[in-house]
Amino acid sequence: MDYANRKRPPKRPPIKKKPAAKKASAQRAVPWRIVVLALVLVGLFVWGLVTIAGKRHQQPAVSPSQPEPVPATVPQSINELPELPQERWEYIDELENQEVIVDVPEREVGPPKVMQCGSFRQLADAERLRAQIAMAGLESQVRTTEGQTGTWHRVILGPYATKREAEAERHKLERARIHNCMIWNWE
């Protein structure tokens, strides 16, 4: 379709407004009842505020013949202090002289732990992982073993006295993006 050469649509005739509707809105009656009610409510509100404010500023008159009451609990001198109360409790003395015996079982330390981070057919792969572990700040070893399926080169860390020590070093390795390290009992 050629938009440049198309014809303009025919003009519509303007909509004529009715003059009666215009006059009716201009001559609408003011609701005098609502105006009077609003003025009365505003007047009552202002009168209430003035009444409250006037009561706040008024102070009761004090006759000069009556002396001011003095509280009975005030000491006569600043240096005078009240007496210390007597202790009513006896358990304080009893507890100071008691000895508590607690039976703490010793932690069972299992066999030493070793952490294996990889097992490879090629020695070069094992040495590459060992270098990554060294860059993380830990010392590892490559142990070569002969099995039924051939020669394996294992990358191990340890031995550790507790599993907690091994877990701490495994977290260091995970922060260095070395994953899949397993903790085993040392044989």
Automatic annotation (TrEMBL):
TM regions (residue ranges): 30-50
UniProt GO MF annotations: peptidoglycan binding
Cross-referenced InterPro entries: Cell_div_SPOR-domain, SPOR-like_dom, SPOR-like_sf
Region span, Disordered: 1-22
Keyword annotations: Cell cycle, Cell division, Membrane, Transmembrane, Transmembrane helix
Chain ranges of the SPOR domain: 107-186
Biased amino acid composition, Basic residues: 1-21
Example GO BP: cell division
Name of protein: Cell division protein FtsN
Species the sequence originates in: Pseudidiomarina maritima
